[in-house]
Amino acid sequence: MKDIKTLGQLKKSGYRPRSIKEELRANLVDKLKRKEKVFEGIIGFDDTVLPDIERAILSRHNILLLGLRGQAKTRIARLLINLLDEYMPVLAGSELNDDPLHPISRQAKDLIEEHGDDTPVEWVHRDLRYVEKLATPDVSVADLIGDVDPIKAASLKLPYSDERVIHFGLVPRAHRSIFVINELPDLQARIQVSLFNILQEGDIQIRGFKLRLPLDIQFVFTANPEDYTSRGSIITPLKDRIESQILTHYPKTVEVARQITQQEAQLVEEQKIVEIPDVLEILLEQIAFEARSSEYIDEKSGVSARLSISGYENMVSTAERRMLINSENKTEVRIIDFWGVVPAITGKVELVYEGEQEGPYNVAIALMSGAIKKVFLDHFPNPDKLKKGEERDPYGTIRAWFSGGNSVDLLNDSSDEEFRKILDEVSGLRKLVEKQLDVKGEEAYTYMELVLHGLAEFNVVNKDVLEASFTFRDLLANMLDDDLFDDED
């Protein structure tokens, strides 16, 4: 078909116009019949969001994707172009992507009247049939719909009553395309009103011109829930005209969240030598889950998947930096490397009043503490139950070792050899891990470190956090040191 260069050739080819909604529907039907994946790279929505979108397309609906930040709304919208035909014929030079057999603009009609079957035809790739606009308070009706252009009127020597003086906005120029408006509630109410006719009747009016442009557009809107902030809301008449409202959501399981993070994290080739134990990937995702249920964080704002993605990148970079400092050829992420994840947490959460009182740093530490506690309990017995005599204490040897005045200093930048040597000195630590989890060799060190952090969360041992190290020691000894310090004062 791309060899067709004129209107006459297009007519003879048997080409028949169809609306963009019919085009999307037909190509979706074809993909579903062939059992092809429709939305490549979207994880965790297979049983919820994606079927709703497919139903909306089959129904030829405009779509509103409603959900908190970081829920892949824009990515889904952009993937819709894969349901378009690869190429689409337009009249050459047309401002509005006019269909050669069904022109709507005055310019296109004049071209056909002048050239007849010799009117030149061009082919537009589907990548160029996607228009996206971020809604901001300064967006005007002229930006979206259009306005009279006095410069065009003067240069063409036309009166203002001639529709050729119109400068079309983004929406008319998206004729036969997918048009996406992100963060719809941020659009002023009077601007939202200008979309009524387009959605309901498919036409527009510009500055009182009595022109009818039956625009053919697939609209996709994205928005946070209406009560997200006080910035604005979707006015009811506009919402009523958007046929399908689809709710997005955050990953429902840690495993789905891990897949998303691994897919989206941007690591350079040199960083791929850094090994990341599965349990620490789970720990990272658990931080995000803790954040979404934290009393310190605004649940209406949400906690984006970008927290885990940025945290993953920082975690790897922290281990890489340590490896470079120690002139090592490889290394493995440690829990202590999560110190480098703090900046990724503080920049990705919106705190409520109580969180502001605590401060972003302390909130980040609290989230990591909650995540460590959860992951620790997934692998080891609860020390609080053991204190009540419900079962035999597997931590007895470790408690006794710390009670004997011993302590553990884990430095952020210590070499792998030093790190392992320090953990091996803790009596009973390796034996506990190997017995509880049946792990051997180097794999055990990750869980040995997890035990120390976990016991600290349950106040079995004390953990002191300094700028470049973690120190673990007996809880009672720490209290005595504090008393001694107070006496000296």
Report on the structure:
With 489 residues, the chain is an alpha/beta fold. It folds into three domains: 7-247, Rossmann fold (3-Layer(aba) Sandwich), CATH 3.40.50; 250-378, Magnesium chelatase subunit I, C-Terminal domain (Helicase, Ruva Protein, domain 3); 381-489, Orthogonal Bundle (Arc Repressor Mutant, subunit A), CATH 1.10.10. It has 23 helices and 14 strands. The chain has helices spanning 7-12, 20-33, 49-58, 73-79, 106-115, 141-144, 150-156, 170-173, 189-193, 196-200, 236-241, 254-264, 278-292, 306-325, 342-346, 353-358, 360-377, 383-387, 396-403, 416-424, 429-437, 443-457, 475-488; strands at residues 63-66, 87-91, 121-125, 130-134, 146-148, 166-168, 177-182, 217-223, 244-247, 274-275, 331-332, 407-411, 461-465, 469-474. Helix 13 packs across helix 14 (306-325) and helix 21 crosses helix 22 (443-457). The longest helix has 20 residues, at 306-325.
